[in-house]
Amino acid sequence: MTDTDLLVRVATANQKRAGYNRATRRHEHDKLAAMLSPLPEHPHALYLSECTHYSGTHYEPDPLEEVLRLLGSLWARRGPDGRKFGEVPYRAYISEVPGSVNVPGLFIDPRTVVPRRRYPLVGSRAQLANTVTATINGHKWRLKCVHWNGSRGETGLDQQADQDGQMASENALYAGDFNATSSATGETVYENWGALCDEVGRPWMRSQKGRRRPDGTWGTNTGSIDRFLEHGWWDAGQVANDFTETTTDPRTALRIDRIMLSRRSPACFAPELYRVHQDPPLSVGGVRNDHRMVSVGVLVRAAA
Predict the structure, then answer these.
(1) Which domain holds residue 72?
(2) Could you give the CA distance from residue 196 to residue 245 in angstroms, rounded to a whole number?
(3) 153-165 vs 223-230: helix axis angle to the nearest 10?
(4) pTM of the model
(5) Cβ neighbours of residue 125 under 8 Å, at least 6 residues apart?
(6) Exposure of 59 by Cβ count < 10 A (0-12 exposed, 13-18 middle, 19+ buried)?
(7) Which of 69, 71, 79, 124 is deepest in the core (most CB within 10 A)?
(8) Contacts of 280 (CB under 8 A, 6+ apart)
(9) Is residue 140 in some structural domain?
């Protein structure tokens, strides 16, 4: 690291349905706070894969306003007089995904990740849809929180990998729930994926994260992430040689929550800062969240 490098703290978290309680029609934001609590400092770029009902609703109080207040105050401190200081003025960019309420969202600290333009779903080139252009240490970047749709199966995941993979041609930092793992040495993969889906009572999960072989059996789908990386991306976990699974069911755990950096970027991962955080505390009812948070540091060189 040089004197002109900028350390950008990045985290991706998938709080199930953003803590939305279907019975009360309210968000239990304390669940998100518990998930983010292991981070000693605020992330400059926070990728939240399921921002359920954060936008496009008429709920009061407004859930997006609530979560922005929460994120702004989580890492604030109190002075001798008891007043808070150091609150983070996060900006939120919630994706548009037709037919889904579990949409991904990007939250950035505009003092470090300076937003320049948002690309909506409609009216943008397919590769740019739901991305944000920002300036980091003098360079233009493309940022996007992803939640690849596993219900479209292996073919759909391949299509999403190819489309998002195209952005390796620019400075890009993508993160979120990719709903797939890779074939890298050290990854958890299951040759008996179909049998495991039956054992846990979720046979429909076969196509969400699996692939059907010619003999009719199912194994873990690794091709979609492999082909995405081949477009020109670095994966933070692979760089750190840490293949800890990010889903919490021990019988079907996979590393699907990832932070990706385009290889052409004027930046590199700080592998010593890579973490797959332990499970957050049990939620109401004793149900544990189905994803773990991932964080890493990205060192961005200064523009010439």
Answers:
(1) 6-179+228-300
(2) 16
(3) 10
(4) 0.96
(5) 119
(6) middle
(7) 71
(8) 31, 34, 35, 37, 288, 289, 293
(9) yes
- Enter the DSSP assignment of 247: B
Write the single-letter amino acid at 294.
V
Tell me, what CATH number does 85's domain have?
3.60.10.10
Residue 185 lies in a domain: no
Nearest Cα residue to 109 out of 93, 95, 94, 131: 93
What SS3 state is found at 256?
Answer: coil
Structure tokens, 1:
């690291």
CA neighbor of 32 nearest in space, from 78, 68, 83, 85: 68
Distance between CA 187 and CA 253 in Å, rounded?
A: 11
Kindly report, residue by residue over 45-97, the tens digit of the pLDDT: 999 999 999 988 787 889 999 999 999 999 998 778 777 788 999 999 999 99
Number of domains in the chain: 1
Buried b / exposed e along 227-256 (16+ C-beta atoms within 10 A): ebbebbbbbbbbbbebbbbbbeeeebbbbb
Look at residue 211 and tell me if it is in a domain: no
CA-to-CA dists, residue 148 to 180, 231, 304, angstroms: 9, 17, 35
Element (DSSP H or E) covering residue 260: strand 257-262
For residue range 141-163, list pLDDT tens digits in order.
999 999 999 999 999 999 999 99
Task: Report the length, in residues, of the chain.
Answer: 304
- In the numeric block, the tokens 């004793």 are attached to 286
Residue 166 in this model has a pLDDT that exceeds 70? yes
Residue whose structure tokens are 């008996």: 192
Residue 142 lies in a domain: yes
